[in-house]
Give the backbone structure.
Amino acid sequence: MKVGLVLSGGGIRGIAHLGVLQALTEAGIKFCKVSGTSAGSIVGSLYCQGMEPYDILQTFIKTKLYRFLRPAFKTPGLLSLDLTRSLFLKYLPHDSFEGLKTPMVIAVTNFSEGKLVYLSSGKLIEAILASSSIPGVFKPIIINSKMYLDGGVLNNFPIEPVRQDCDFIIGSSCNHLPVVDKIVNTRKLIERAAIMSINADMEQKSQLVDVLIEPEGMGATSVFDVKKTEEIYWLSYNAALNQLKSNAKLQSLLVKS
């Protein structure tokens, strides 16, 4: 059976995908195709390269990604991701979709033309950077003289690229919002509104996956809250373990595999 994987965007919350992958990998589940947006494109690409989920987690912890960020002067963005290219080259030295061990599709937003694009061939690292460039935070990535930004602007859960090629689809989403009675500040209000926006079609898309693993309340974590990296990992790992124990569809997949 051909099993596909969909990974949402979500900033540091994307670490949740690693916890999910760790549990699924331990259960013996392998994927024939992966698609991802933003943080999902980073995790997905490193996983498709053949790295183990826990090793990817340790890489994130040791790297301290913020050290590779620089102010983006005279550009429509506060920070630049340019220095991270050398970091990604360390783990993806071939810098190509074709060099990955498992096929990967990355959702990006062509900001120049105002349309969604799925990238699955050619330069890999610029696709990752484009898909991770949150509007207003990171400057756009220029590909073929056009501006590209975070794929989550138009599709934060790119299930479409894997539907035709896979018999069974597992989705990992890291943006579940808890119920709240009050908002403590403007930043929290804006963050919650942004997550509500990218979650707008999740109810519909959840009907298109066979299994959706979505740790409860994860959306309450700020997109840049790196202090919660390990907590996010283990919460999502346990959420996936619970699914493996209780979800009939997932259990049927284990039997077939």
